[in-house]
Design goal:
This protein is mainly α. The protein has two helices and no strands. The chain has one domain. Helix 1 packs antiparallel against helix 2. The model has no long low-confidence stretch (mean pLDDT about 90).
């Protein structure tokens, strides 16, 4: 196992982590931005107003994206398992 391979494997893992977390982060960002605009327009500055919609939308995004996320993780793990014989020898 060369240092280049370890760095490449780390890069793949970080990319996968960012890819998997993107749907929930994007949904939370969009809802947070929408609620912030609504608060600015109506001049209602309640701090707790953003929590419930964000929790609901992020949970919904998780439920919708979960099969895709699991498939991506399984593909990565299968790739790692298939490379074990080449890494060891």
């Amino acid at each position: 196992m060369t240092p280049e391979y370890v760095v490449h494997l780390g890069q793949q893992a970080i990319y996968l982590m960012l890819l998997i977390s993107a749907p929930m982060l994007a949904a939370g960002l969009v809802v947070g931005l929408g609620i912030s605009i609504l608060q600015a327009v109506t001049q209602i500055h309640e701090v707790t107003l953003t929590f419930i919609p964000k929790i609901l939308v992020v949970s919904l995004a998780l439920v919708v994206a979960l099969p895709w996320m699991i498939q991506k993780l399984l593909d990565f793990m299968i790739m790692l398992m298939n490379q074990i014989p080449t890494i060891v020898s």
